[in-house]
Amino acid sequence: PLFTAMTSQHVIIASESMVYVWQYRTATSRLTSINGASNKSGSDRELLWFIDQAPSIKASKQYLDQNEYDSSNAKYPVTNDPICCLCASTDTLMVGRQSGIVMRFSLPHVQMIDRYNVKCRPNYIHLNCNSTKLSVIEINGFLTIFDINQEGDDTAVALPVHRKDCWNFMWSSDNPDLFACMEKSRMYVFRKNHPEEPVASSSYLCEFKDLCITAVQLDDIMNEPETYLLDYPDDCVINFETKSLRDTTELLASTPMSEAYSFIEDNPHPRLWKLLAECALEKLNFSVADKAFVRCRDYQGIQFVKRLKMMTNKKQQKAEVEAYFHRFAEAERLYVEMDKKELAIALRMRLGDWFRVVQLVNHGSVNEMTKAWDNDAMITKAWNNIGDYYADRQKWDKAKRYFMRAKNFEKVAECAYVVDDYKTLKELLSVVPEGTPWLKKLGEKFQGVGLCTEAVTAYTRLGDPKAAIDCCVLLNQWDLGVKLAEEHKFVQIQGLLSKYATHLLQKNQIFEAIELYQKAGKFTESARLLAGLGKQALKNKVHYLRAKQLYVLAALDVEKYKERKFNSKNTVGKDSRQTAAMTLQSLMEADRDIGSDSNLEDPWHGALGLHLYLLAQRQLYTGQHSNAMHTALQLVRYEDVLDPKDIYSLIALASFSNRFFGQCSRAFIRLESLDSFTEEDREKYKDLAMSIFVKNPPKDPPTRDTACPICASPCNPWDQQCPHCNASIPVCIVSGRAIFTQNHFTCGRCHFNIYERLVRRFVNCPLCHANLQDGVRKQSSSGRSSTSRMKMAP
């Protein structure tokens, strides 16, 4: 492309032989498109044709199908009369050729209307605002103006305007007889083919509108672009006023208005009539102002003058005129002097100056203002608009402060949410009245960031319990969701909980299912899953510690279930019969939920068995053979948890190490009687026992005397039950030995015992890891046992 032009709807590009028109903007009517169709596709808004042929849509589509334009390609014709310039207006396209022919096309329907012979080689051509005149600057700088208003005339009519050494030209955009041209280093302005006094300038013309010419110092910018633009930005663009505009300004300042009116009638222009109208308004000469506004076709100005004439107070008229000229401070001062503060407030409200509105409202009171305005409502509106002002500028803290003053809690919530101020959002829950519709949005905000409790509170205050339950389900807060469902009788949540848990178990996401049951308060189900995981961990006989931890967690869930079940019934104010009935009902419900599951009936059984097994191993490997044997002998009651082979092998090893060969012999006898052994295994155990007991008779060394704490009958130190009264003898979970004294400590959570002399070493229970400060100390006093709360030293 060599030549370009652009209008408000079209872009025109041309090479030496081809012309391309793109209609980038269309009006609502389909007639404004190039081919008259309403299709919005790009091909219907662009046209490409060969300059020696008439524009055709069919030929244009063939040319546009080419990916690139190549003038050397035979598919694109070459003309003998190349294009040398072009220009366009809203409805006309002019294309100049080297032979002196200027072709005229219509827009938006591209059709050739006429052709003119300017008898020269045009270098630049320009159309005036109504497409009636054409300026041509020849290649040697000679300027000629042609009248092209008459159609069918091959030779354009040259007007008596001839200038030499022209290098730039600009028509006025609002006057078809006004133009400016550059000759060497001077600028001339022509009105009806008559020049005004030249102005010295070498700038490039940019715009000519309202009798003002805008020019750019393009040579200086291109010579030193960075320095000139940074150091002299105000000198880059220069504005020139025409002579008529300068003369009118001087006449209005120094002569009577009648003379200025006569001068403008002789040199009419909307800009001059506008100046006269403004000057008349300044002097409150409304008759002249009205005529001037009519002549410049300013409807708003006419209505403004009409409203001023209806006012009887000159000072009020002056204030309105000051506001018209955007001198708002002076207008406000006049209103206040007139004791018309309501008008000053109305002015500031129209301007959106709400800070000043607040100052005016709070500055005393006026009777008229009190009658016309509600101060509280106005202050509230001002605070809201000030908050919007800061919110638009993303100053959320200031916006929140002003919205709070206006008690616009919805906007306060939006600002607080943007800056993550959830403290303010929580405070709004107690301030906003129940049933307020935007509580739903507040609940959604809390739900979006995972604050389930606050979201539930918002939905509950809104009166939408279903949304609150859905929020709990979505955020995996099943305990709160189940509680709400029970309160509002939503039975669907139980089925949803079961389906979700089944889905997790099918995907082998057991820990997620356990967490789900725990959050939903289904502690018996989570305990079953934890106990099952503990059994799986015991199968490979490697992760004994993990198995113990899983059993402890299962037992803790059962304890939570019992605590909730038996403490949920409020027995305050009930008589003994009602209390007994409620307790019986709780026991029946617990028996139904637990059923015949041994892991739930005695939840700590498996945890204690694994604890003692690990303790015995640790004691054996650290050389505490006596404690290891006593601890291992306690494991005989845990054959349902541990493998009997492991139990009796450990007893045999610990007894052998402690040289209690009687206990060792009984362990070998029990091992040889196990049904899981093969004959080969039994022979191996028999051979090992023979090698031991040939050298060591199966007898135990003497032990110190121990007595049953209940009946005082003699017992073995490792007995788990009194042989006389059948009383159960507790075991110490620290040493693994049986406790034959009343001086011991009981953990408040797992309820297992520790020797009094050993409890001081620990802060937490070795089994359940509960704080031992919550435990109970038992001690004997004069043959009687007493119980006291444990007070641990810090």
What can be said about this structure in brief?
By secondary structure, this protein is an alpha+beta fold.
Task: Characterize the structure shown.
Helix 25 packs antiparallel against helix 28. By secondary structure, this protein is an alpha+beta fold. The chain is 47% helix and 16% strand. Strands 13, 14, 15, 16 and 17 form a five-stranded antiparallel sheet that branches. A four-stranded antiparallel sheet has the order 1-2-3-4. A four-stranded antiparallel sheet has the order 5-6-7-8, with no helix packed on it. A hairpin with a 6-residue loop joins strand 23 (744-746) and strand 24.
Mean pLDDT: 83
Number of strands: 26
Ends distance: 91 Å
Q: Main sheet?
A: 5 strands, antiparallel
Rg over CA atoms, rounded to whole Å, is 51 Å
Low-confidence stretches: 37-41, 366-373, 780-794
Question: How much strand content do the residues show?
Answer: 15-25%
Q: Judging from the principal axes of the Cα atoms, what is the shape?
A: elongated
Number of H/I helices: 33
Structural class: alpha+beta
Roughly how much helix do the residues carry, as a percent range?
A: 40-55%
